Backbone:
């Protein structure tokens, strides 16, 4: 039966060409959109996790209330002990201390007075410990434009753009002017080890990176840090896993009313990521629903036109004794075959275009140059296993719905009138 | 009829005539609070969410243009020096042996995490130069009768566009001040107490500043010693004095 219908579709192109082309285009669009959204979401989650949020983050409650202001005066103390506890309680996770801080970087002239200076956002992480994965996590080696990564205390990395503004090069001296954890002025001299570009406007405008121990010394934060980030052993963010961990950790401090007690939050609870992730997911669902409805209507329409064209054929089939139900079912089966063919062609075409977007991406650097959210300048598609099959359900459902609606006309034909109709 | 109008007019005049003019009050405050220059040794107790800390400093201030401050304690701040000339500020830190110039907008930022700005700490403005004043009422503050005076800035480059001050009638010194932005938002509240008569003028030995825009319990500024109209060597107001 299937072979018979398939042969019919191939031989009678009027019956299959337009529906297959329609489905191909729709499925290709769905595949590209899925890969594109997947890529953007994945990049944003990954970038935010590595640079800012971790898969989970621990701060004090008071710090969390004003987290956008990097309030190191509300930072955690006794962090070495807390890290030890975390490593004992959740040994599979990687726990790292981070300090974010603002400050002025000042480049001196020959007499030690200000030659140039600029505002910078500081990131401090463990750059030197043997077990630390921070250099790899932040891709520092890849991001280096001039010089090298710091290999000893007192060295600093700054963004290439900031280095250009300050007119400094590797080996030059820089002085950090910031605030200590207690609000006093913090001065610290550094040597510029290198410059970096991460391809993220929020960092490339004016980031400085130093070792966590240098930051703790400069900001009077010995055995203290603003944030502790946790990274899943799978290296990927899993919301359920993060939720369980967060609930388990926060339950230990539920009775503690101290505003400086630690609290854990998930990645999606930070940087407005929850609303953005939910918005993007709902947009995907909306797009696929609209696609099914629109394609269904187009195919319903084409089915009606096809039905008119096949009016005689169906009449003859009814006249020779084929039941209405059998004809209807054979047309539905035909539509499934058309849907399959369109979905296969659309998926192949969509994957091809998605691969181009995955390889080359689209640079939106100019549009996000003032962005404060961690996001890459180049957005790329990301093809994942679901991308290979995402086009099939809407492709097949749309053709089946279209044919089901247009095929209802078969039941309206009166067998007694058939020969009159055929004569006419 | 004429006598009635005259009576009402005289009544209204006499009611307002009980209040001194705003200008008169500002002049009398400036006589107490302001001077050609001053040398102050002070303690600043900053009450933050994590506890209190004390910073000691010695300052030389000449009007609103020249100021030099050297921090004396705690050990981490000791030796840090600040020089302000007009709207330029330089800082010297002995730990880095660097002199860093800070742009003018920093002058309205907090000093050492306190509730005082650099301008609050390093300037000695005459109110009469910067504000128009109107006496709007009278009220007791800490049991002392005070004039309520509302000040409006004469020009745009003052930190607080409006001020509402409660001025001790007998000693011509503010006991309380609300420092208000042009938008009407209350920025800081200051109380002044431990008023002492010294060198022929009344002067508060304790100021309590509360920045209303930040958490914390405020900052006490305690005057340990103060000298008015002293001879300040000119080289003190140069960058060479920082090192």
Residues:
């Amino acid at each position: 039966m299937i072979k018979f219908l398939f042969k019919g579709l191939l031989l009678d192109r009027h019956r299959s060409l337009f529906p297959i082309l329609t489905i191909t285009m729709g499925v290709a669009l769905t595949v590209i959109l899925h890969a594109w959204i997947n890529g953007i979401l994945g990049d944003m989650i990954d970038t935010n996790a590595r640079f800012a949020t971790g898969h989970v983050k621990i701060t004090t409650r008071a710090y969390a209330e004003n987290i956008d202001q990097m309030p190191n005066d509300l930072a955690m103390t006794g962090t070495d002990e807390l890290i030890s506890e975390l490593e004992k309680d959740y040994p599979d996770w990687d726990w790292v201390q981070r300090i974010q801080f603002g400050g002025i970087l000042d480049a001196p002239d020959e007499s030690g007075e200000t030659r140039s200076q600029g505002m910078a956002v500081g990131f401090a992480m463990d750059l030197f410990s043997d077990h630390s994965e921070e250099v790899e996590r932040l891709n520092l080696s890849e991001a280096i434009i001039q010089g090298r990564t710091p290999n000893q205390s007192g060295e600093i990395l700054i963004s290439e753009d900031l280095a250009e503004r300050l007119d400094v090069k590797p080996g030059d001296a820089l002085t950090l002017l910031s605030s200590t954890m207690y609000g006093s002025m913090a001065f610290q001299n550094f040597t510029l080890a290198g410059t970096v570009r991460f391809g993220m406007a929020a960092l490339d405008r004016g980031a400085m990176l130093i070792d966590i121990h240098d930051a703790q010394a400069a900001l009077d934060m010995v055995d203290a840090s603003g944030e502790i980030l946790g990274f899943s052993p799978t290296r990927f963010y899993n919301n359920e896993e993060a939720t369980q961990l967060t609930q388990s950790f926060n339950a230990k401090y539920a009775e503690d009313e101290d505003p400086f007690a630690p609290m854990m939050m998930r990645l999606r609870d930070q940087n407005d990521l929850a609303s953005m992730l939910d918005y993007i997911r709902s947009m995907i669902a909306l797009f696929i629903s609209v696609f099914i409805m629109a394609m269904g209507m187009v195919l319903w329409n084409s089915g009606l036109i096809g039905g008119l064209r096949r009016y005689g054929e169906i009449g003859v089939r009814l006249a020779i004794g084929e039941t209405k139900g059998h004809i209807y079912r054979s047309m539905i089966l035909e539509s499934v075959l058309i849907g399959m063919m369109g979905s296969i062609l659309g998926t192949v075409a969509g994957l091809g275009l998605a691969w181009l977007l995955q390889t080359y991406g689209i640079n939106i650097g100019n549009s996000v140059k003032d962005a404060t959210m961690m996001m890459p300048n180049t957005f790329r598609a990301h093809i994942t296993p679901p991308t290979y099959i995402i086009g099939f359900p809407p492709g097949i459902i749309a053709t089946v719905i279209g044919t089901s609606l247009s095929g209802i006309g078969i039941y309206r034909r009166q067998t007694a009138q058939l020969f009159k109709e055929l004569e006419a | 009829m004429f006598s009635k109008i005259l009576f009402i007019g005289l009544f209204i005049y006499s009611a307002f005539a009980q209040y001194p003019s705003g200008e008169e009050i500002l002049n009398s405050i400036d006589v107490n609070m302001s001077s050609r220059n001053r040398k102050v040794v002070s303690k600043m107790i900053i009450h933050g969410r994590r506890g209190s800390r004390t910073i000691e400093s010695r300052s030389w201030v000449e009007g609103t243009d020249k100021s030099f401050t050297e921090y004396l304690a705690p050990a981490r701040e000791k030796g840090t020096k600040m020089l302000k000339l007009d709207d330029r500020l330089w800082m010297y830190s002995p730990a880095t042996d660097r002199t860093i110039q800070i742009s003018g907008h920093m002058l309205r930022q907090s000093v050492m995490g306190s509730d005082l700005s650099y301008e609050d700490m390093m300037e000695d403005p005459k109110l009469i130069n910067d504000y128009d004043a109107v006496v709007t009422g009278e009220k007791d503050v800490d049991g002392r009768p005070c004039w309520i005076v509302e000040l409006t800035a004469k020009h745009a480059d003052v930190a607080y566009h409006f001020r509402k001050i409660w001025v001790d009638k007998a000693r011509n010194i503010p006991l309380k001040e609300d420092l208000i932005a042009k938008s009407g938002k209350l920025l800081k509240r200051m109380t002044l107490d431990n008023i002492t008569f010294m060198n022929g003028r009344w002067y508060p030995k304790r100021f309590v500043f509360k920045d209303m825009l930040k958490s914390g319990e405020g900052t006490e500024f305690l005057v340990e010693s103060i000298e008015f109209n002293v001879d300040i060597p000119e080289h003190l107001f140069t960058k060479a004095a920082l090192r």
About this structure: The first strand of chain B starts at residue 38 and ends at 48. Chain B touches chain A through 24 residues (CB under 8 Å).
